[in-house]
Amino acid sequence: MTFNNLIYHLDQGVTTITINRPDKLNALNYDTVMDLNAAITAAQKDVTCKVIIITGSGEKAFVAGADIKEFSEYSMAQARGLAQRGHSELCDLIEQSTKPVIAAVNGFCLGGGLELAMSCHIRVASENAKMALPEVSLGVIPGYGGTQRLPQLIGKGRAFEMIMTGGMVDAQKALAMGLVNHVVEQESLMPLCHSIAEKMMGNSSLAIASAIKAINANYQDGVNGYQVEIDAFSECFNTNDFKEGTSAFINKRKANFPGN
Ligand code: COA
User: Fold this and answer.
1) pLDDT digits (tens, 9 = 90+) for 167-200
2) Active-site residue, selected from the candidate residues 115, 185, 187, 229
3) Which of 143, 38, 46, 45 is nearest to 86 (CA)?
4) Ligand 1 test: best mutation among 24, 29, 72, 135, most atoms within 8 Å of CB?
5) 132 alpha carbon to ligand 1 midpoint, in Å?
6) How many domains are there within the chain?
7) Catalytic position from the list 95, 135, 198, 244
8) Is 256 within the bounds of a domain?
9) What contacts 144, CB < 8 A, 6 or more positions away?
10) Domain with 132 in it: what CATH number?
11) Average pLDDT, stretch 206-232?
């Protein structure tokens, strides 16, 4: 599958999507957001894909934000469209993916780049990663869900500080705050993401999809997450994956999940 602004690579159940505008530090312009939308949608539909990894090309940046040059002349109506697209076509799509999405944060992860990473289920960073929501330094606020997902991940007080100062946090600080799950040397970044993906792929993909749905329910207005969990839990009992998982345990063998 080919795209102008990203590289799409599926190998042994893992789809790696590499945002590929290194000369612009992988900034998200309109075309890149739409390519990401198409790539993530394709990975969702591909039954051979079990886990998605999103990263940036080059060694300097994951994504240095939304493309500032592109939006600098936008009207209010265009700005609304930009934010709406960032939510529905990109970040919500990733967050609600039925397949786990891992952000491999390999450098600058700023503005819309951090918002993209925060919509992924898991973030793994290289030592050189730097994260910030610097929008207020441009006279604007985060518009791809950053004001909502950052407090969810690191707490309200720290989110207020990061957003109001616009200051960058390094990988170790991001780890201490719970903004990323792991920090490794740059050369170990993709191997660690693949080893996490490998562990996930040994489990029931149906159960993982249900777990994603139940966890996300906690953050949806008007949705009772506990009830979603009860429903999703009971639905698992009607799957062949459940029969296989429990019978493998009882018979002391490794489960081989059929995925239905
Ligand atoms: N939008 C558009 N272009 C961007 C960009 C963005 N968010 N971030 C970087 N670029 C472009 C630069 O304009 C430059 O392009 P040019 O060579 O055509 O001038 C290229 O990427 C390299 O960036 P540069 O600023 O020269 O690299 P640097 O190492 O000096 O600085 C950063 C790196 C990340 C500190 C700096 O690029 C930066 O502050 N970027 C904007 C971050 C931001 O505010 N993001 C939030 C947007 S909402």
Assistant:
1) 999 999 999 999 999 999 999 999 999 999 999 9
2) 115
3) 143
4) 24
5) 13
6) 2
7) 135
8) no
9) 66, 83, 86, 87, 90, 91, 112, 115, 116, 119
10) 3.90.226.10
11) 97
User: In the numeric block, which tokens belong to residue 109?
Assistant: 């992860």
Do both 223 and 111 map to the same domain? no
Residue 77 sits in the same domain as residue 113: yes
> b/e per residue, 80-119, with b = 16+ CB within 10 A?
eebbebbbebbbebbbebebbbbbbbbbbbbbbbbbbbbb
Q: Does the annotation mark 198 as catalytic? A: no
CA 86 / ligand 1 centre spacing (Å): 19
CA 163 vs CA 86, 132, 146, 240: distances in Å: 18, 8, 9, 46
In this prediction, residue 38 carries a pLDDT of 98
Q: Residue 206 is encoded by which pair of tokens?
A: 């149906």
pLDDT band, very low/low/confident/very high, at 225 (cuts 50, 70, 90):
very high
Residue 192, CB-side half-sphere exposure with 13 Å CA sphere:
20
Q: Give the integer Cα–Cα distance in Å for 82 and 76.
A: 10
Determine the residue of 25, 116, 162 to mutate for testing ligand 1's pocket, defined as the one with the most ligand atoms within 8 A of the Cβ atom. Answer: 25
Tell me, yes or no, if 115 is annotated catalytic: yes
- pLDDT, average across residues 128-140: 98
The pLDDT confidence band at residue 146, using thresholds 50, 70 and 90, is: very high
